[in-house]
Design brief:
Layout lengths: L1 H17 L15 H5 L29 E8 L5 E10 L4 E18 L5 E19 L4 E14 L2 E16 L4 E5 L1
């Protein structure tokens, strides 16, 4: 019994350590529109015609977003600014494309050595560009996919990642029911 308890405890401790690095590129989770922020920072199911929601779930792209442009800039904490630009173009009444950029600028930092002498300054930035495709499967069902190349630049360090978002949305107009799986 003790051996079994020890194995379970060790497995649990190891699992906690594995989940520590799952929040890379956390700027992608910021609410880029005021409506998304008012809904708690996330909206994965509500279809309001707001193009900004397609950044969180590409299945929310609709034909009413054709030739829509959304610009967002937020002055965050200290010198941090973040924002986004999104544009939607309908291929036809069933297929939709969206292009966009998300960014966050952490401001300028003073570089100092171990003796606290000023060595210069540097900045830190994160960027994500993306292309989203949405398709109406039926009157109630839509699906979408997003491809996001993500870049980070902190002082002289750079990183790159490729992210993919997939989503499915169900909407029943008569009962005002929204459900989605991003």
């Amino acid at each position: 019994m003790r051996k079994l308890f020890f194995i379970y405890a060790l497995t649990f401790i190891c699992a906690l350590g594995l989940s520590a690095k799952t929040n890379s590129f956390a700027f992608l989770t910021l609410p880029y529109s005021s409506q998304a922020a008012a809904l708690g920072g996330k909206n994965v199911s509500y279809r309001s015609g707001d193009l900004n929601f397609s950044m969180q779930n590409p299945a929310l792209l609709t034909d009413e977003m054709h030739k829509s442009l959304a610009l967002n800039v937020t002055s965050y904490l200290a010198d941090i600014n973040f924002g986004s630009v999104v544009y939607c173009h309908n291929i036809d009444t069933m297929n939709f494309l969206s292009y966009g950029v998300q960014f966050i600028n952490y401001g300028k930092f003073t570089e100092r050595n171990e003796r606290d002498e000023e060595m210069g300054s540097f900045s830190a930035n994160d960027w994500a560009m993306y292309v989203s495709y949405g398709r109406r499967l039926s009157e109630r069902w839509t699906a979408g996919a997003t491809l996001k190349p993500v870049f980070s630049s902190y002082e002289s360090y750079f990183s790159f990642a490729l992210a993919v978002d997939l989503g499915v949305s169900y909407y029943k107009r008569k009962r005002i029911f929204h459900s989605a799986l991003p």
